[in-house]
Design a protein that fits this description.
The protein is mostly helical. It has one domain. α1 runs antiparallel to α2 and α2 runs antiparallel to α3. The N and C termini lie far apart (64 Å).
Length: 112
């Protein structure tokens, strides 16, 4: 039963990691690619590592530490990449309606 649960979690993790790769190929601009890659890969890695914990219970503490590391670093690194892309004015897809960061920066310039 433990091996079946581990196998299902690993399969689900692989599906999410595949969808992250597919999202990186299919999305129209940098910002949506970052979002697709980050969300799906974070969940995919967590599921895959949890599945490994079912296969190797002795590794559970190490895998939980890795999961925590993934949860802390993936969103922060994707935020930094998106902020850097916005700062160097990487163009957004034409269907993007709102640029909240630009609006905030314009308000800050108006206050000074």
């Amino acid at each position: 039963m433990m091996e079946l649960t581990g196998s299902i979690l690993i399969l689900l993790g692989a599906i999410f990691l595949f969808s992250a790769g597919l999202g990186m190929l299919r999305m129209p601009d940098v910002f949506t690619r970052i979002q697709a890659g980050t969300k799906a890969s974070t969940l995919g890695n967590m599921l895959l590592l949890t599945g490994l914990a079912f296969y190797h219970p002795g590794w559970s503490l190490k895998l939980v530490i890795i999961i925590y590391f993934v949860l802390m670093t993936n969103p922060i690194s994707s935020h930094a990449l998106a902020r850097a892309a916005h700062t160097i004015r990487v163009s957004m897809t034409p269907t993007t309606v709102t640029d909240a960061l630009r609006d905030v920066r314009e308000q800050d310039r108006g206050v000074q």
